[in-house]
Fold these 3 entries.
Entry 1:
Amino acid sequence: MDEAKQQISNTINNIEEDALTGSPRLQIASIATVDERLSSPSVFNITDRLPIFSYLVNSNRIRWYRVIMRYFLQCHRELYRYQLTAQEVRDAVRASFDVEYTLEQCQNDLAALKEWGNVTTIYDSSRATSIASFLSPALLYQATPEAIAIETFLDEQTRANMGKGSLRQGDLPHLWKTLQELDENLTATGIETINSREMAEEWQRAFEVWNTMAREAAQYLANMLQAAQQGRPDFEAYQSYKAAVVAYVHGFAQALTQYSRRIRTLLASWHETGKKERLVEIIAQHLEPPAPTLESRANEDDLWQEARNQVEAMMNWFALGKNADSFRRNALAEVDKVVRRASVLSASIRPNANYAANLHMLAQQLLRANNGETAQQLFSLAFANLLPVHLPESLAGTPSATYDATEGSAWQEPPDVNLRLRPISRANRGDHPLEDPVIDNRTIISNIVHQYEEKRQQEVQRFSRLFATAYLDIGMIKHITTEERNVLMTVIDGCQGDARHQYRAPDGTVIVLLNPDEEMYAALRAPDGVLLLPRYRLYTAELTKAHVALMEREVILSKHIDLFRLVNRHYYTLQKWHDENTGWRIQRSATAIRLVRQLSATTPGYLYDRLKEPRDFACLTWILWYAENRQLTGRGNEQQFLLSQLADQIQEQSTSGVDEDAAFDFRRPSDRYSIQRALQYLEDLGALQLVDGQTKEWAQQAEDADVLYEFSDVIRSLVSAFNPQLLEVVAEYINNEEKVLQPTLLQNILGDLFPVMAIKPLVRAWRTLLLGPVLLRYDDPEAFAELVEHTDEVANDLLETFGWLLDVKRDYACIVRASGMSSGPVTSLTPFGTSDQMAMLMCTAIREQVSSGAWPRPDSYGCVHVTTEDMNALFYTLREHYGDNWGNEARSKGSRSLLNDVYKKMRQVGLLRGPDGAGNVMILPTAARYSASYERAGQEQKPAGKSKSKSRTLTLPGLDESA
C-alpha cells in the first residue's frame, strides 16, 4: 500500500501543470473497465491498469472532475452527506469554478466518473410529485470508498471508508445512553472547564458512533437494494436476498424503530430549551487539540460552524420523515419484496397460479359479457365488494317479522305501499317567463352539494363533541352552545318517540336514553338562555355504528380517522359476529379495513353508478392486473405509474383472446372514457391517488396530456379476494340467456365442483338479507325455511346489531330501514326518477292484471310468468295514460328503450327477472307490494283490456303448482 501511495503522490505532484500543457507524462495508462464484483483492495493492484485514476490524468476535463470530487469529499467529511443529485453537483461547480456549467455537462462528467469507478448511482426512491419527475427519476450519486480514499490522500487526510456496509445493533443503545448523559450534564447550571471537556469528548465519541452507523447502514441498504434489482428468480438467489433482508430488519431496523423516536424527542427538546446552542459552544471550544503554532489552528468561526454541522447533522438524520424514517420504510418495503419473490417462485413452479394471469382471463370474460349488469355480477362475485341494497320504510311498507304460514300470496293481499307520485313534466313546475335564464346547473348542483356536505359535517362535529364518551349525563354539562343544544333536544325527542328509546344519528351511531322516566331536573345553560329539563343520561352504541360502517362502506381508509379507529377498536367483536352469522372476514391493514362480502347468489345489485358497460368493468379489471403484474415482476415498491403507460398495457392485453374489433383502442373517445370511469371508481374507493395531471384532459386527447397515479394497499385487498376457478364456472352460467330466470343460488350452479360453497342455510340467509335487495323462497327454499324457523332470533339480532328491521312474507324476506334512519349508501328506488315512477306504475298495472285474471296466476313461489309481448302491451297502455307526466327526455325516447330502462330498474331492486333469450319474463312477488298513482286529478289509470295471455310454458320450480 505504501508503494501505491508513492505512485499516487508522484502522479499528483505535477498534475495541474501537466494537465494544462498536455504533457506526455500524463499518458501513463489506458482506461479499462473494472468488473464491479472486484473486491475493494483489487482496485489498488498497481500491476494492473488503474481506471479509477483516469479523472486525474484526462487532459480535457480534469479541472471539472477535480472540483466534482472535492465537493463529494467536502460533503462526505464536513456536511455528512453521502448521496448527491446532479443538480447539487452542478450548482457546486457553478459556484466555485464554472458559472456556465450546464446540467447536461454535469451528467456527462458524472457518467464518466461512474464508468471509472469513482462514483456509484442508485435511483432516488422518494415519492415522485410530478409527471416529469416520474418520467426522469433522479439519480443519486455517491462517491466510492476508493475515490474518497484518493481524495482524502490528496488533501492530506487519513480517514477512508473501504467497507461494504455493516450492521451493529448495539450502536443505537450506546448512542441513546450517551445522549442521555449529555442531556443531564447540559441541564446542570454552570459548566466547569473539566466537565465541558469531558462533555465535548463524550459528544465526539457519540458522533463517531452515529456517523459510522449511518454510513455503514446506508452502504448496506444500497447494496441490498442493488441486489434486489439484479437478483434472479431462482431459489438460491432468493435465499441469499432473504437472508440479507432478515439481517437488516433484525439487526438494524427494529432497533432503529425502538430508539429513533426517543432520540428525536430528546434532540428536539435541546433545540427548544437552548441546550443545542450550549452544546455547540462546548464542542467548538474543544473541537481541535492544542497546536504548537497558531497558524495551523482553525479560526473560531470555522470551529463553531463545524460543531453546528455535527449537531444539526444528527438532528436532521433523526428528524421526522428523514433518514431514520426512510430506513424503517425501506425495511417494510424489502420485507414486502421478499414475500413477492416467494410468490414469483410459487408461480414459476405452478404455471398460471398467480393473480395476474387470472385477472387477465377475468378481464377477457368481462369484455365478452352480454351487458353491463352481467359484467357487474361477475365483478361483484370476483372481488366480493357488493354494497347492500335496502329500501326505507316509505318504499317497502311497514315491516313485520311475524311469519304466518296460512298467509296467502302477496298478490292476494292489499298493497303494502300506496304512493302518490308527482309528475316530472315541466308543466308541473308553474308558469315561466318567455325567456328562461341560462343557468349553469353544474355550478348550482356543486354549490348545493358543497353546502349540504358542509352542513352535514358540522352536524357530525357537534355529535362528536356531545358524545365524545360512551355516556352523556346532562347534569354534568356546564355550558352548551345553541346549536349543540338543538342537536341534544333532537336526540332526546327521537328517543322519547321510539319504543326502544333509541335514536339513530346521521353518522350511524345509535344513542339510547337510559332513564326516560327521570324526575330529577337539570339546567342547560346556553348563550340565549337556560333550559330546565330532566337529568337524562344517554348512551352511545358504538358497536352498532362500527357494524353499520363496515357494512355500508366498501373500504374504510385510515384518513377516515374516527371510523377507522372505531372499527379497529371493535375488530375482534365484529369479526366474531361475522364468523357466527355470515362467514365473512374482515381484512385490515395499517391504511385500510374492508369487509370481504362473499356471495351466495348471483343476483344483480348496485355497484357504482358510473360503471355501466362491460368495457368499463374489463378496463377496471385490467387496472388491477396491471397493479398485480408490477408486483410479480419485482417492482412492488414502484406504486406510481403514468396513465399513458397503463393505457398501452391494457390495449396490448385486450388484443389477445378477443375479436380485433372488441379490443381496446384508446384513440377512440369511448374507450378513453371507459378507463376514466374505471380510474374514478378506484380513486373514490381509495385504491388510487392522483398525484399530478388531469384525467379529463387525457380523455379529451389534449396535446401532451398525461396523468401520474399512485396505487394504495386497497388494490391488494381487492385482488386477494379473487377466486378464479369459481368464477370461471359461474361466468358461463350467467352469460347463458336461457338460464336468466333460474334460481340464482351459487350452490345449485356449482354443484359438487366447489364443496366449500355448501355453507349452512342460515348463513346463506344472512348473506342475502344483508346484501339485499330480497331473499326469495324461490331462490333458496332451504335458507328461507331456516330463516322462518329462526325469525325472532334473526330479527332481534338484526335490530340490535345494525338497527335495521326484518320483513318476512310468505314468499320473500328483506331488510327495511326504519323511517328517520339513514337509507344507506345505495338508494336504488326513489319516487322522483322517471324510471322509478315507471317501474312503480308497472307494478301497479301488473297487480291489476293478475287480480283481474288477464294474466296467469302466480306459481307456488309467488312469481308471475309472462312474455315480453305481455309487458310491451302493458307498457304501451301505461305510456298512453301517464306519458305526459314523465318529462321531455322520456317523451323523446322510444317505448322499447324506456321499457329496457324499466326492466333494469326492476331487476336492480328485486322486482323482476328477465327477459331471457326466449322472451320470457318473471315478475317477483315483491312487485305486488306497490300501488302508485299521480296526484293530479284525471290521471288515474284506465283498466287494461283482459286479453289472453301469451305466456310460454317454462320448466321452472313451482310452475306446476297453483298458489
Entry 2:
Amino acid sequence: MKPIFSITVIVLVMSYSWLATAAEFGVYNPHSVKLNGVASIELNLLGIKDSEFKLIRVDNGRQVPYQIISKNGKKLLLTVLELKGLAGVKIQLRSGNGRQKALLKNSSTKESLIMDTPLYLLALNKQQGFTMNALTDKQGGKIPRITQAELIFSAGGEQQKYNGHLPKPEKLYYQSKSKVSGNFIYSGGLEAQLELSWPFEFGTVRDVVTFNGINRLIRHNVTLKYNKIMVQGEYRLALPHFSSSQGEGTVFPQQERYPEKTFNTPGYEFAYNPEKKYGIGLIAPPDQPLRNFFWEFLGKSEAVSFDKCRFSLFTKQLRYTNLPGTFNFSFALMAGGTPAEAADYAVAATDFREFKTISLMSSKNIVQSIKFSRLPLVGEQTVGTLNLFRGMNLGALKLAINNIAVKLHKTNSTFNWRPQHAGNNRVVVTLGKNRFFYNIQVKTLAKLTKLRLAKLVNKPNQVALATVTLINNAPVDKTFKLVSTVVSAIDNSEIVNSQTVTVSNLDSRKITIPWNSGSDKKGFTFAVKLFYNDKLVDSINEYGSVTAFVPDAGQYSVANPGWFKTPGQEKVFIKKLRNNYFGFFEFYAWTPCPMTGLSPKTEQWEPHTESQVAYRATISKSFVKKFIKLAHKNGIAVFAWMNGEVALPTGLTFPDTFRYSQTGQPLLYSGRIWDGKRFAIGYTSALYNADKAYLWGKAMAKSIDMFGWDGCRFDWAFTPSVVGDPMRAKKSDWYNSRGVSSRKLYPAPDAAGAKALKAFRKGVAETHPEFIYGTNSGKFSAEMARALPKYKKESSTDSWIWFEYLLGYYHKRMATWQKWSKVLTKDSQLARPNGAQIGLGRQRPYSAGATSAKLIPYLILYSGLHWIGPTDRNKSLGENWKIWRYAMRYSKYFYGKNFKLMPVQERLATIAVTASPRLFWQQWIFEKKDKNGRSLLVNMVNLPQGDYISERHELPQPQKNIVLTFNKRSNEKVKRVVMLNAMPEPHTVVLKATTAGNRISVAIPVIKWGTSILIETKE
C-alpha cells in the first residue's frame, strides 16, 4: 500500500492594509510532501460586499472560484483550492467583480437529487434514504448498477444461554430503509453541504455530505447518537457487474481480486475497470475511529457464475462506549476517476486537508493555531527546525505549549530547545504585531528503525542476517556503537554482534548484522542497542525462532489456488505471514491428482481435487517454485496439501485405485462440471496398503526435489476404518475393484493404518529426513486413542496435526469458554507427548476489536495449540498479531512437549488464585519436570460476564488485587516467578514471592486480557 502521510499543511495569512494592498492567504507545505487534493478555506467577510473583490492566484494570475455562505450567523467567503505537487498556493484578495461560473449544480425531482460537476454526475435516491444509486464518470463511463451505497448501523446484546446454533447476528439498521430528511446547509456553484438525518430504534443519525466542483471527493461527516448497546457502524458499497466476469477489473492499491480482504485504516480501497474506464472507492482518513476495510471482488476468473464487487468501511466497536453515547467519524467517497487519481486523493485527502477557519478581523490582528503529530517527552533532547518568513524578528518570537513558555536558543539558524511541558499538540506562535506559522520537526540525536531479520525462522547453527537503519540527526558526522543480542527462554542473553558505525551528518545508513543462530532455542528476542560515548541512545527489538522443527515456531496459514496463483501475489502473502509471525503455510488443493500428480510433467495444470466444487484454477510450475523459494528466503516453511483421494481421470485409467460401493459404483467425494468438462475426485483403496503407501512416499520425495516442500498436511487418515461415505451408508464398508470388502482386506485397521503411515514416512525420509509429516485429525480424542492406539502414536510422532473437529465451539459440549478450553487441553495432551504440534482455526471471523476476537487467540494459545487461519485481516483485528508474536517469543513454554497438563485434582491442590470468578485459570496449569526441579506454567484469561462464546460480549473489566498461592513440596525452593505478557510487546515481569512454610504467595499486577505466570523451582 502506498504510504499514507500524516502531514501538517499550514494556512499562511499575511497582514495587509485593506485599502493600500491586496490581502494574501494560501497554503504552505512545510514538509515538502506531494499534495494532491483540495483545501477548503473560509474567510470572514467583515461586511465587505460581494461585488467589491475577487480572488486571484499569485503564480498564474488566474481567477479562483468562490461562493458566499452563512455559518453560525456569520457571512463567510468559501474557496476551494486544488493542490498539485510540492508548491503551495498563494491567493490575493483584490477589489473587483467576483462573480464566477458555477462548477457545481444540483437539481431535484420527486425521486432523485442530482449533483452535477465537470467530473461526475451523481444521483441520490430520495425514496431510499438519499442513498447513491447512479454514478457517471464524465471522463470515463457510467457504472452500470449500484445496488447499495449507504450507512448501516448494528446493535445487539450478549448471548446469555445456549441456543443450539451460532450466535444470532446483530440487528442491522439501514439508511435506505429509514425515513431520511435531506436539507442543504448551503449550496452554491463551488461547494454544497447536504445534511441528512434520520431516527432509528436506538437514537439518531446525522450525515453532513460535502460536494465540490473541483475534485471527486465526496466527504461524509457522521454523528451517531444512541441510548442502547450498539455494535458498529459501516458504509457499504455493492456494485454487481463492476469487476467484469472476464477478470480485467481489480482493486487498488493491492491490485488484487478475490478473496475478500480486510485492511487497516487509514488508507483507501478503489475498484477500477480498465475496459469500461470507471472506478469508485473509499478513503479512511487518519485520526478517525475507523477500524478496517472489507472487500470482495470476483467474477468468471474466480470460477463463479456471477460478478460481484463490494466494499465496506467499518468503524471501531461501539459496544464498549458509555450510554447514552455520541460517536463521530468521517470518511470520503471517490466518485469515479483512475487508480492514479485514487492514489493521489488518498495521500492528499487522508485528513481531507480540513484547514482552520481564518478570521480577517483587522489588518494587524490575525490569529491561527496549528497541530503537531507528536510533541517530545519531558526532558527529551530535541532539535527543532524553523522555516522563517519575511525576516522574522527573532527577539520577538514567543513559543508556548499550553501557555507554558519554552526556551529557544539560536545556533546557526537551528533552535535547540527542551520543552518544559508536554500535554497536548496545540502550539501558538506570536511574532511582533503579526502571527506567523511554522513547523518544528522533533528529533533525537540518532534513531534506529526498520530492524528486520532475514529469516523469521532459522534452523540451528546457521549464519543468519539482520538489517537495521541508523539515522544520524546531528549536523555533524557521528560514530556510534551497535550491540546486538539474542535473548531466549526468559533471560538467556547472548551478544551475537558488536560493531562501530560512522554515519554522515543528517544522513541514514542501512547496516547488515551477521550472527550465528546457534542451538535450537525456540523463540527469541533480537535486540539492537545504539550507544554514543558509551551512553544508550536508542534500542529496537524484533522476534523470531531458531528450531529444527518448524511447527514449534509459529502459526499456520493456508494459500488457496482459487486466488493464490497469479505472479506478484506471493510477495504480498509472504509479507503478511511475516507481519503476523506465521512460521509456515500450506498450499491447498494444488495438484492435478493427489495420488499421481505430485510432480506434474507440464508447466501448467488444473488441479483435480475436492476444491473444484468451488472454483477452477490454472497453476504454473514456475509460480509454485517461485513462492516456495521466496518463503524460504524469509525463513517460512511451505507444506504441500495431500489427500487420500484420486482424481477421476486417474481412477478411470487405473480402476484398482478407486474404492467402490457394494453395487460396484466408484465412491466419489465431490465433483463439478466446468465448461462441459467433469472435475471429480473419489476415495482411493491404495491408501492403506503399506507397499503402495511407501511408493506414495517416494512420489512425495520427488515432488520435494521439484518444488522444495518442507512438509505436507495429509488431509486424510491412513486407517481403513475411517471412511467418509457420500452416500451416507450406515456401514463403513467399502469394496475394491474385485468386490472384496474392506473388512476382509483389513481385519486389523489400527495395525494396518500405522503400518501404512510408517511406510509413507519412510519413503519420504530415505532422501529427505527433515521432511515434516502433517495430518488432519478426524477426532484425536480419548476414544480414538483407545480404538486406534498404534495409529495414534505413529500419526502424532514428531508431526503437525490439525484438530479441525474442534472448530465447532458453538456446539453444546463446547459452547462456553470453560468447556471449549477443557476439550482443547485434554485432546491436545494426547498428541503433544509424542512431539506433535497441534493447530486449530476458527470458522467465524468475529468483528475486529470485539471481546471474542481478542480472547479466542488466548484460549487457543494457552491450551497449547497453534492458530490456523488467514493473515489478510492482519492488524485490523485489534492486536491479535501481537498475540502471535508473543506465542513465537515464548514458544518454548506454550508449545514445549515436556510441559504437560497437570491432573485436575493436583492442579487445584497446588495452585490457588484469589481474584474475581471471571479470571479463568483452573484449566491451564502445565508442568515440566527435570532432574534439577520443575517449571509450572499457569495461564490466565480475563473472561467477560457471559460464558457462552458470542460475538457480542461486554468488555471485561481489568482484574486487580490478584494473589496466586503455590503449595511447594517440602524439598523445593522457588527460584523465581515471572509474568509473561504480550502487550505492548513480549516481555517478562519478575514477581515478588513471599514464603510462609510450604506456601508461596505472589501478588500479580492488573490483568486486562490474558497473561501467563511461570514458576521455576529447584530441589
Entry 3:
Amino acid sequence: MLKKIIVTSLICLFAIFGANADTLRENHVINITRLEEKLKTSSLNEKPLIYNQLAREYLGVSDEKSLRYARNSLNLSVISDNRAEEAHAYYIIGLAYYNLDDFDKAGMNFETALTLEYNNNNPERLSDIFLHLGEVYEQKRNYDSALAYFQKSIETEQKSGNPNRLGNRYKELGDVYYKSGNLKTSLEYYFTALELEEKEDSIENIADLHNYIGIVMLDLGNYEKALEHYLTSLKMMEQLGNKQGQARSLNNIGIVYYDWGNKEKALEYYQKSMLIEEELNNERGLSGSLNNIGIIYADWGQHDLAIDFYSKSLDISKKYGDKIGIAQTMNNIGESYFGMGKHDKALENLLISLEAEKQLGNLPGTAVSYNTVGDIYFKLNKPDLALKYSDSSMAIADSLGLTAVKLSNFKLLSNIYAATGNNKKAFDYLGLYTQLKDTIYNRDFLDQMTKIQMKYEIDKKEQEKDVLIREFKEREKIIKKQKIYVFIIFFSLIVIIFIVFYDKRLKQKANLGLKMLNNRMYTQKNELSQTLTLLGQSEEKYRKLVKNSPTGILYMNTSGKILEVNDKMLEILGSPGEEKTKQINCLQFGPLKEAGLVDDILKCIETGELVYNEKPYTTKWKKKIEVRYFITPIKDKEQKITNLILNVEDITLRKDAETALIRSEMKYKNLIENSLQGIFVLQNNRLTFANNRMTGLTQYTVEELENSRIAWYDLFVHPDDREKARLMGESEIHEKLSEEIRFVRKNGTIRWIQILASPFDYEGKMSQIIVAMDISGHKESESILVESEKKLKEANATKDKFFSIIAHDLRNPFNAIIGFSNLLISSYETMDEQERKNIIKNISEASERTYKLLQNLLEWARTQTANLEFHPKMLDACVVVNEIIAELKPHADNKKITLISEIPFNTQVKSDENMLKTIIRNLISNGIKFTHPGGKVSVISGKKDHDTMICIEDNGVGIDEKDKNRLFNPDFQLRKAGTAGEAGTGLGLVLCKEFVKKSGGTIWAESGAIKGSRFCFTISGEE
C-alpha cells in the first residue's frame, strides 16, 4: 500500500517561503526605524516612495502592515500624479495579497500595476509583474495562463539583456509543468535553469535546483539520480551554512532510502531533518518530517505511535492552511486506522484525502489515493470496487510515468485477479510487477546507490580532513613558537653555566658529561619517537577498524560506565552523540534493561564467560529492532574481570527478510496447496513437486508421486494418452500447451483431465509447470448429450416406423376384412355354402393376422417408450418351450412340419416370462413360416460363457447373407412370403431383439441360402 510522503520544496511550497515570518530580522528593524524617522520630515512628493519602501520591508513579516503602507503610498501617488510609485504600490499590494493566499485580489492588483508599468519604461519591474502573475495563475491551477506569463517574463529579460534572472524564470516553468503532470518537460526546464544558474555561480539557487530535479527523478523512479542530486544539494547547503536547505535535502534523501526499502536509513535522515527544523522553529518544515517518521512506524506495525506523529503533522498543516499536507496526512492516518482494524474510520479518512487531492489538481497524489483506496477495498473482500479504484490510479500513473505507483498497482491488480479466479490476468500483472521491480531494483541500481552515498561520505570526510589539516597547521605554528621559547631558555641556561662554571677543567668534564647525557637522551628520544609512531599507527589502525566496524562496539567497566563507543553502536542505541552516550550507565539504562541486556551483562561479570544472545530492542526513538550481541569479559593478570566489550549487530533486516520469506512461502504454498486444480512440476518427465489436489485426482499420496522413480505418464496416465503426455513433458516450446488426457487412478478408475503446461526455470533447471483440471463431469455431460441425441434419433425413427406400419401394414388386412365382409353381405343369397365358408375363413385369417400385427406393434412401442414392465424370475426353459410348441402345433400340422424340443428338463433361466414366450413364439413361428411341408423345426439349448443359449433351427429356405445383418433393424423389414404364401408383420425379429436386450442377452442369426436358418439368443441362467 502506498503511503503519502511529504517531499519538501515542491509539494510543500510553504515550507520554504516565510520560514522566519513570525519575527523581524535585525536588518528589517534598522531599515523600518530609519524609514519611519525619515517619513516624519519628508515632503508630500517624497512620502509615496518611503511608504512603498516601508511596505516592502513588512512583506512576508506582517503583510497587513505592508498593505496599509502600500495603500498610503497609492493614495498619495494618485494625488501627486506619481505614476511610477502608483504602479509600485499596486505591485506591492499584489505581493501582500499573494502572501495572504488571496490570489484573486493579488491578480487584480498585478494586472493594474502591469497596465501602469507599460508606460514607465521599467523592464525589470515589468518582468517581475509577469512572473508574479504567472505564480497567481499557477496557484489557481490555470496552468496555460501561468505558462504564458512566465514566457513573457523570459522574453522581457532576454530583450533587456539581463541573463542573471533567467534561471529563476525557467525554474518557474519547470514548477508549472511538474504540477500539471508533464514530468519530462518539467525536468528539461529545471536543467535549463540549472545551466543558467551555474553560469552565474549562484550557489544557493543551484542547490535548490538540484533538489527540484531530485524530486522529479524520484517520481520517475530513477532513484540513483534522485539521490545524487539530493546529496549535491545537501553538500552545497552545508557549504553555505543554510540550515533550512540542509533540512529539506535530508528529508528528501530519507524518502529515497524509504522507497529503496532501507527504512532504518530513511528514519536516520528524517530525524536529522526534524532536529534542524526544531532548531529553526520552522513548523511547516517540521510537519513534513513528522509525517514521514510516522510512515516508518506505521510500516513497523506501531500504528498508535504513527498516528501520534501524523496528528502533530496534521495540526501544523491545518494551522497554516496547507491543503496538500492535510490531504496527504489524512491518507496516512486512514491507512494506520485500517492496520488497527478500524475499517470505517480508515475509509472515511482515505476518501476525504482522495477528494481533496482531486480538488487540488494534484495528479500524483490523486494516483496514490486511488491506489490506497483500491487496496483497502481488496482487503475488505470487495474486488469489484478495488479494481475500479486501481484502474483509475493506473490511468494517471501511466500518463505521468509514476513508476512507484505503477509498481504498486501491478501488484494490487495481480492480487485482485487471483482472488476473482482470473489466473491468466493475475499471472500477467505479476509478471509486469516483477519485470518493473527488477528494472528499478536490479543489482546495478543497488551498487550505484551505494556508490553515490559513499562518494558523498568520502567528500564529507575530505572536507573534515581539510579542516583537521588546517587545525593541525595552526597547532604546528604554536608548537614552533613554543620550541623557539624553549630554545631561548635552553640557550640562556647554557650561558649561565658558562659564566658560573668558569673552570676549564670542570667545564670540560661538564661538557663531556653533557655530551654523554645528550647522546643518551637523543637515543631515548629516537626510541620513544619510534615507539610512539608505531603505537600511533597501531592505535589509528584499530581506531579506524572499531569506528568503521559494521557492528556496534561498546567498551565499559564492571560498574556500567562506558569507556569507548563506536558510531555503529550510537546508531543502534539511537543516541545523539558519543559524549552524551558516555554519560549513560549501562547497568541503569532503561532500554538495555527492558531488552534484558543488563541481565546478560551481570551474568557475564558473575560467571566470567562470554555471553551470546538475540533479542528485540527499542531505541529512544521508539524504533523496534532485533539485535544479536556478544558480551566478552576482559581479565587482568589475576583473572579478575576489569572491563567488558559489548558487540551488537542489528539483525532486523535479516529477521524481517526471514519473516517475509516465510510469509511469502506460506502464502504461495497455501494458494497452491488449496488450489481447486492439481498442480505439479516436471523435470525430464519426472514429477518433482505435486500439490494436495493431485492426491484426489490420482489417489496416490504426494510422497508417492514425488518419490516415484518412473516417468509420470507411466505412473497414472492412460496407455492411449501416454505418448501425448510424454511429448508435453519434453516440450521446449516457450508457450503454454493444452491437452485432454485420461488419468488412471490407483484404484483403476479413469478420470478425464484438462492439462495446461507452461515452461519455466525451476531450481536452475528447465521445467514444466502443469495445471490439471478434472473435466470428467464435462466429458460425461458430452457423452450423455451424444447418447441423448442418438436416442432422440432412434425415437424419431421409431415414430416414423410406427406410423409407416399403421399407414401401410394395417391398411391391407383391414381392406381384406372390409372387402370380404361387403362381398358376403351383398352376395350372401347367391353364394353356396362352400363359398360362404371360404369368405368367412379369409375374414378370420385376416383378422387373426391383423390382431397379431397389432399386438406386436403395441409391445414394440412399449419397449421404445420404456413403459414395458420387466419382472424377471427363474423359469424352466424346457417347460416354456413345450408350452409354445403345443400352442403352435396345429399350424405346424397343417403344413406337415415336425416341431421338436431338445431342451433338457430343469434348464433354469432368469427372464420375464411373457417376454421369453414372445421371443420363442416369434422365432418358432418364423421357422414354420419359412419351412417347406414335411420339414422340421427344432429347439435346442447349450452354454455360451456363463449364460444359457437357446437356438431355433429349421431346414427351410434360409436367409440371404446380405439380409442377415439387417434382420433386427427396425428400419429394415423383410417382407418375404412364407412357403405357403404366409404374410408377416415385419416386427417379430425387432421385438425379439428388444426383449433379449431387456433380459441382458444377445441375439443373432446363422443361415445359408440352401441349408435353412438358425436363430440363437443368450439368457442368464443364474439366480
